[in-house]
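As a warm-up, study this chain.
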Amino acid sequence: MAIHRTNPFRSFLLTLILLLVPVACSPAHGQIPAYAGEPPSLATKDKQTAVLAGGCFWGVDAVFKHVKGVKSVVSGYSGGSASAANYETVSSGTTGHAESVKITYDPSQVRFSELLRIFFSVATDPTQLNRQGPDEGTQYRSVIFYANEDQKQTALAYIEQLNKAKVFSRPIVTEVVPLKAFYPAEAHHQNFLELHPNYPYIVFNDLPKLRALQRQFPNFYKK
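Now compare it with the structure written out below.
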């Protein structure tokens, strides 16, 4: 079910139901412990990229656009082939793609592990398998697509740390897999929250993530 992409009337009704019935659609777990073991090699002077998937890319995109040190965020698809990298095909859940965001950031202002901390704290629920809130399917799975060995080891070690500390009530199921390619999504999916702040799905599922970011990470939040 992808209530944000169905016809407007059905989307409105489903969103209204979700508003009336408590459902864990927005992570907002609370700030989780930081990871202190990031390799010095990730702290370069050059801009770096991180590709993350955590459910509908609208909300993940919006969160990281408000993080200091992030220079750009692009919504797109990763995990599948170039020929399948379009919304209608990805929505089938059979392409291997996950709705993803490509984050370009300045590591002198925000570290890779800090992006992961924000990702796990407010952008996604890393304990949900092949879904996120009201959205179901492998295209909504949680994934860290690592670009190099240091990103891989940082992600794996951080997840192990959080699982051992039982930070979440359930184990983290976020995949850590190599980045093969990233394909930008269609133009109408880019910067969606800023362009459609009153869209019912955005109001219920994604604006709470921005409020959680501002509340939990005031030193990283930018307007």
